[in-house]
Amino acid sequence: MTVEAAPTTGTPAPSKGEVEQRKGVRVRDYGILAALVAIVVALSLSTDTFLTSGNLVNLLDQVAVVGLLATGATVCIISGVFDLTASATLALSAIIGVLVVQHTNVFVGFVAAVVAGALLGLITGTIVVRSGVNSFIATLATSIIYRGLAVVVTGAAILYPLTEQAEQFGMLTWPSLFGLTSATIVFVVVVGIIAVLIAATTFGRRIYAVGGNAEAARLSGIRVGSVHVSAYMISGICSALAGLILASRAGSAQSSMATGIELTAIAAAVIGGTSILGGEGAVWRGVVGALILTLIGNGFNLLGWDTTYQQVVTGVLILLAVGIDRWLRRRR
Amino acid sequence: MTHTPLPAPAIAVRGVGKSYSGVSVLRGIDLDIAPGEVHSLVGENGAGKSTLLKILGGAIRADEGTLSFDGDPVALGNPRDAIAHGISLISQEGALVPALSVLDNVFLARWSHRAGLLRSRADRRRFDELIEVTGFDVDPGARVDGLPIGTQQQVEILRSLARGARVLALDEPTAVLAEHEKANLLALIRRLATGGTTVLLVSHFLDEVLSVADRVTVLRDGELVLTGDAAEQTPGSLVRHMVGRELDVLYPEPAPVPADAPVRLSARGLNRGIVSDVDLEVRAGEVLGIAGLVGSGRTETLRLLFGADAADAGVVSVDGEELTRLTPRRAMDAGIALVPESRKEQGLVMMRSVRENIALASLSSRRAGPFVRPAAERSAVAQVSRSVDIRAARTDAAVETLSGGNQQKALFAKWLSRSPKILLIDEPTRGVDVAAKSQIHHLITELAAGGMAVVCVSSEIEELLALSHRVLVLRHGRPVGTFSRGVDREVVISAAFGDEGEHA
After folding, report:
1. What ipTM goes with this model?
2. CATH node for B11-243
């Protein structure tokens, strides 16, 4: 017995993946920007102080440190690794910077700090690639070593530049273009360069491919190890610059600088919408994540809310960001 | 505690439909399946056969219509309900716990216990009974992640039986199996059906479907176009219903290799792991097929030729020039390309766009300093996509949204955009629908006719014999013979089995 059903012909529907992909991409692309705009609008309407140039300059100065670290974290996460050494690298390179400043001058010292950051990134990356240990564990261990070295080098003391260097050492807090602080300018320029590097170069393509599928990337002739090491070096440079901004602000460096901030950086990357699984994301997302985290702090201050609740709000936000990401992902 | 399985229910499907975000993938399906029947669902990729199987298997719920067992409507939407109704779905991906033993997987969450303590000896007895029923040869103590895919699938079947499944839903069960494993599985399916178990089967292999199924349902674009006795159908009639038109299912005839064609690729004394002393030679314009059972070292040999794994010993030469310390990069520089076995694991970056994937292997040929040249890339990708006929609405869509056939074509496009001299292909058409399969066969034949040297591995012996000028047979990693075009299929198979041929 054979039953022939008359097939109803019509225009073939677009495949289900196609349609959902389009919708999913839109929401995931711009949802986080909408959240940022919403916070900005809410704060503008509810306070008189938010939209003052003083507050905005202050805000952009504050976002520089987390923004730089979030950029480094984003690059690493896209390439499929974590960098938990960020804050220890920050401290160690700032300390090296101050030591070199003491023996030469501020300019050479700052350059030395950035070179130190890049070298520490090179070492971290080499350890991760060569050991084959999961990057989370390998960088956790490495960060303890770096932090320990920072204690050894400083003898647990606070390092200051020489008295006559002190004023120039604070140069990153000086006002610069458009009344913004030099720190903000450094942040914008460096993050801009890295964003272009990731979005428009063949190196950026390799970063995405390695993070998305390391084996497919390897079989496409990509040196997966070098790509990871490069990602760690970018992260190291970002950490060093963030360290210099903090040191310049404080007028000193010490081994306990910015402890735990590497997790804030990863949180910023994730809030921005970079997939923790690698292969997806963008530098601007890390920056938006950092802006949102900074705005929450700023909002608590301006609104006179009890800042003891700030961490609770931040934590809830991270859960929401990751939860929404997962929900959108499951629908496609 | 063996339980006598209850008789399988008569399954009735009425007006079943399913949509994903407003796009209908299955519409108005009416279907009756008798107890103890082997019922096969066929159709091109995207026709809705896997969706229907998942609905019957209880993994997903239909948006409209009803599903009833022995006249009682059932609402299944999760594995627990399905198991409670004696239905077991075995999907392509597998659902085993890699770090647990075979025994623990078979009785997963249903371990024998007394007062909360596990009684593994009781499990062991239950296991032996199942082995007797199925005739499988599986070590109960082995860790699942160390087993070949074929054996893992057997573990899943054992688990279904251990749960007293009366309806077994299998999604592409033979896609990953070697010839003799396929035969064993098909025989088991027949035995289970004789014992009263209903078997639902999705497969691309029409010969297989017709040999094992009692009845066949053909789906096209989410609609049922035919349900009938398998005995009344031929592969040709099924294909006609699947694609809605006549389709050239014949293999293309390869162009003869010119007598003066130079040797492009040669390998001498390749060794690593199972691969032992493999020599081979491919001339420009020639397709060399590599045949052998699963685990005979076919894939491993291709990987050594590409430098994907480093050989312990042996030499690979291109145009007579020896390649030292071979890596994928060096192989690519020498003009070799590898289309690997698994698109998902080794071939494509699934969440990235079609364009980025195709461009990945040839990034440095289209750059301005460090920068990608987007316009040049778009036009290059568009051109190569056309040449392999990728059907994607937008090349910016993630490659994972494409059908299996289009993904495979994207993988070919990625390598063809480098214009390689030598193309190594591992399983050219695995998980690819009938139409795309035929296109890929024509593509390979055309590439060889254009002077490319091709080495092809395939578990489908017909495909391999039809595409190749010569076939090299491996057994336990050693070459056991090279056969010219026109060789009998039985000759190749018995060479692949060797001494084991008699009792396989």
Report:
1. 0.85
2. 3.40.50.300
